[in-house]
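Let's study a protein:

===
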Amino acid sequence: MSKIIEVKGLRKSYGRNEVLSGLDLSYDQGQVIGLLGPNGCGKTSLIKILTGLIHDYEGTVLIDGQAPGVYTKSITAYLPERTYLAEWMKAKDAIDYFNDFFADFDKVKATEMLNRFRLDPNQKIKTMSKGMQEKLQLLIVMSRASKLYCLDEPLGGVDPATRSAILDVIMNNYADKATVLISTHLINDVERIFDSVLMIGNGQVRLDASIDEIANSGKSVEDIFKEVFSFGW
């Protein structure tokens, strides 16, 4: 099985602040990977490097065997932590925009999920709540048939009752044999869908293990998280 993510000696600094300090990672296709760590540990920087949005780093990064660029962007679907859609757009405009931009976009699937989330296709984004905007962005991202999905805090702005439905959307709509990388603080809500867990802190890998290895320890992912970061990272 080919590697979808290969990272060697990855370093990234902002001025004198080094947020990633020599990361080595390797993942096969077809996994759901939980990316966990405290605020400021470098999760978002790592995701932006993998998606080709940050270029000034040291080390080697390969997505499906190639350095981040035109090809890797064509096979990677990215959900950022913040809303990025233009406020003037209506929900249907956002769907049309992605349909025009990405060859792997499924407009029928996007429209079905729009109805499932009970979002008005004619409502402007600027009038939507934060949770509604996040649902719209998620359904657009999950309507692509990508090889890699990078989701940065997909549950951050939604209420607990909606989280299970959103997780179901994620699990039921990503492309066959694709890899899903999910950054989250809501470990209890999400750990049931993980195949493996990556914990980073202080710019370094603190844990890289399969969910089976964690289960065999007799502890939950959250238990391990508390142990790993008990020193305040």
